[in-house]
Amino acid sequence: MSDYFVHASSYIDFPCEIGAGSKIWHFCHIMTGARLGKECNLGQNVMIASRVQIGDRVKIQNNVSVYEGTIIEDDVFLGPSCVLTNISNPRAQVRRQHLYEPTRLRRGCTVGANATLVCGIEIGRYAFIGAGAVVTQNVPDYALMLGNPARQKGWMSRHGHRLIPAQNASDPLICPESGLRYLETDGKLRCLDLDEDTPLPADLQIGQQSYLNYKQQG
């Protein structure tokens, strides 16, 4: 008996690796040689191509295809119908399977619904790609990217809230939900309270009512 769930309508091409606690829902296809980590959740009609590497606790919403050459680290969120690619100049007449361009999604980043990632780039840790954005270049950690082509429009916290710039540039930016502090230095953002590779403490993994109060007061 497996320690993960696969809906009867889905296809799993063995050998592949599926971590404990993962859930694969209707009409998905996991191809030979793919690696899916622990406690992942794949929505309806998700395709994971051969040799794709996916970390733990990754959430992939409906109608997403993850093509060969993609590396997805832990805690990444892929929104409905977002698009990933692996060849920047595809032609049906030219065979380029040996020229796949790698795309890496770093820990904790979010890709919004209907966003497109052009291959050969890296999405930084906890970056936030807005719905419908078209990303053509590397994205820094915590960056908020919007538009076509996507441009950085600010910073996002690990809890997914836009950080308001401090009046004094040397002062930290505060997440309104978690209270975690961030500091921008030389065009880069880092968290002062947690290392970027440290999982959230258990008490910060559940959304807080205090943020709803913050929005109502704002």
Short account of what is shown:
By secondary structure, the chain is mostly beta strands. About 5% of the residues lie in helices and about 30% in strands.
Total of DSSP H or I helical runs spanning 4+ residues? 1
Find the structural class using helix and strand composition.
Answer: mainly beta
User: How would you describe the oligomerization state of the chains in this entry?
Assistant: single chain
- General shape: globular
- How far is it from the N-terminal to the C-terminal residue, by CA? 51 Å
Return the CATH class of the largest domain: Mainly Beta
The amount of beta strand, in percent, is: 25-35%
The CATH homologous superfamily of the largest domain is called Hexapeptide repeat proteins
Radius of gyration, rounded? 18 Å
Give the biggest sheet. Answer: 9 strands, mixed
Helix content: under 10%
The third-level CATH topology of the largest domain is: UDP N-Acetylglucosamine Acyltransferase, domain 1
Main features:
six-stranded parallel β-sheet; mainly beta; 218 residues; 25 strands; globular; UDP N-Acetylglucosamine Acyltransferase, domain 1; 2 domains
Could you characterize what this model shows?
- It is a single chain.
- This protein has 1 helix and 25 strands.
- 4% of the residues lie in helices and 28% in strands.
- The strands form 5 sheets. The protein has a 9-stranded mixed beta sheet, with no helix packed on it. It has a 6-stranded parallel beta sheet with strand order 3-6-9-12-15-18, with no helix packed on it. Strands 2-5-8-11 form a 4-stranded parallel beta sheet, with no helix packed on it.
- It folds into 2 domains: 5-156, UDP N-Acetylglucosamine Acyltransferase, domain 1 (3 Solenoid), CATH 2.160.10.10; 158-218, no CATH class.
- 33% of the residues are buried.
- The mean pLDDT is 94.
- The termini are far apart.
- The protein has 218 residues and is mainly β.
